[in-house]
Amino acid sequence: MKIIKILTMVFIFFLSNTTISFSLIEVDITRGNINPLPIAVSPLSQDIKSKKISQDSLNLEDLGLEISKVIENNLKTSGLFNPLSKDAFLQKPDIAHLKPRFEDWSLIKAQALITGKVLIENEKLKVEFRLWDVLAAREMLALAFTTVPSNWRRVGHIITDKVYERLTGEKGYFDTRIIYVAEEGPKTQRVKKLAIMDQDGFNNKYLTLGNELVLTPRFNPTNQMVTYLSYFKNLPRVYLLDIETGIQEVVGDFPGMTFAPRFSPDGKKIIMSFAKDGNSDIYTMDLENRIVEQITKHPSIDTSPSYSPDGKYITFNSDRSGFQQIYLMKSDGSDVKRISFGNGIYGTPVWSPRGDLIAFTKLHKGKFYIGVMRIDGKGERLLTENFYQEAPSWSPNGRVIIFYRETKTDKKGEGFTAKLWSIDLTGYNERLVETETDASDPSWSSLLSN
Amino acid sequence: MILNKILKNTFIVIIFGLVVSACATKKTSTSTSAKIDSQLQGDVYIGSDTVGELAKGVPDRVFFATNESILTTKSRDTLRKQAAWLRENADVNVVVEGHADERGTREYNLALGERRANAAKDYLMTYGISADRISVISYGKERPVDPGSNPLSWSKNRRSVTVKAN
Q1: Hey, what CATH class is B42-164 in?
Q2: In this prediction, does ipTM exceed 0.95?
Q3: I need a surface site. Which of A151, A202, A264, B73 has the fewest CB within 10 A?
Q4: Which chain A residues contact residue B118 at CB under 8 A?
Q5: CATH number belonging to the domain at A177-444, selected among 3.40.50.1820, 1.10.580.10, 2.30.30.60, 2.120.10.30
């Protein structure tokens, strides 16, 4: 439970949410944003004594400045904000935090301003921040919280989430992590390891050594456990990994390959495919009582199951029509119906956390697409096209999709690189997500602090 | 006027260059496609590159069409040879490894590889090899034998390979 403790920060809301109404600033996230909101992120101020401590214990010259950079980077990657250069700031951080001189900030065209203060005392990091509406000359949000100093990057993420929520009206996705498969080596002998990192690519950690092939890791709802496919002892099986203890266990006792695992939304079951005698069907296993249930029973391939957020339905991939298509059924396996009818073949359906959309991979005329459709199969929208890409995973607020893409690095098409990419649901703001090694099969966690 | 002359000459050179390179492209593409044609039947690989031996004179692998797990006449011939050899060498157990090419989603391809390996296993069984001597494993698209991204490479990767387990 150590990680839980570290992950769950102590929030002390001693300043109040002031002036909810009459705000002039509003950010619309439902369309591609051509005019990102100009925002100034003042370095968080820090007194000399506390600065000395953070220099010694965290090896950071200026902790307040570093946290503000985390926030700026998050805001910039969202595509909705345009963080202004600090060189143009006229007001000192400590004074700005007390009462900004709004004329100074509007002079540099800032419409919103973030100020803050950090303090390290008794091995605790105390942070407070304020969000200001520059044009209306008023405070929009003020919060403070306490955590352990080593969590300082998360402080930046949490502040971004609060600012994002206040300005867009929707939950953020910055205090989150990505689990993925780190890849190295030639295509014919690829070495794959499980890896986990913060959403912005920092704090990368490898969870397996690469001795056996691992694929398709997915978080449980509390982000403590991961289910994935491992070829341990050359037996491809679904495993469960406790991130905190590092303990791994095989899921169930199936006489054959199990694969394509995901958690149910309540985290109590794992849903997966079990392949036997050339036929793959969908099964669930209850993690508490170990009861196994067969959900589909069909001579075709049924795989890639994903629950609706309320747990009542399952979307999955089947070739019962002759080719890979996307299907929907009740969670007991009844009322199966096909929902993908466009040109091409469809795979990897993933239900959006908001419940209204299904993300998928589509292969048509030699190109791979990441797209979304409504749960009735209508309103198909392709977000991105490439030579090879798949495995969409939703940000917890359902606004961004992360996936992976292989890019050829020579004309013969033999060299290649696999990387994680993200794109907004709007189809705009496509971005490379930096990783130390090549990467595939990303899975986005839910918000760590909630 | 000198500039004009230079431009003219450059223009001629460019045209010449285009003609030459057009010829070059055409030449290579015909020879490449002829080479591919001789190694593919439909889109099933029929060449001998990458094919190893389970035993002397017994090929170790069979190839499949895109998205298919149906055994071709040639594949059945290969598997009958494997079965004959296995009948004579009753102490040998085998693993049939099923593979897919990269043109499909990862999870579906794992299922497809398993389906292909089982197609080969079933055929070996109909020629008298008992099920407990044959195990199957699917690698999906994780272990291509040819790293290329072109129809010929993909055809070599859509395969099931019979390997000795002991």
Answers
A1: alpha beta
A2: no
A3: B73
A4: 277-278
A5: 2.120.10.30
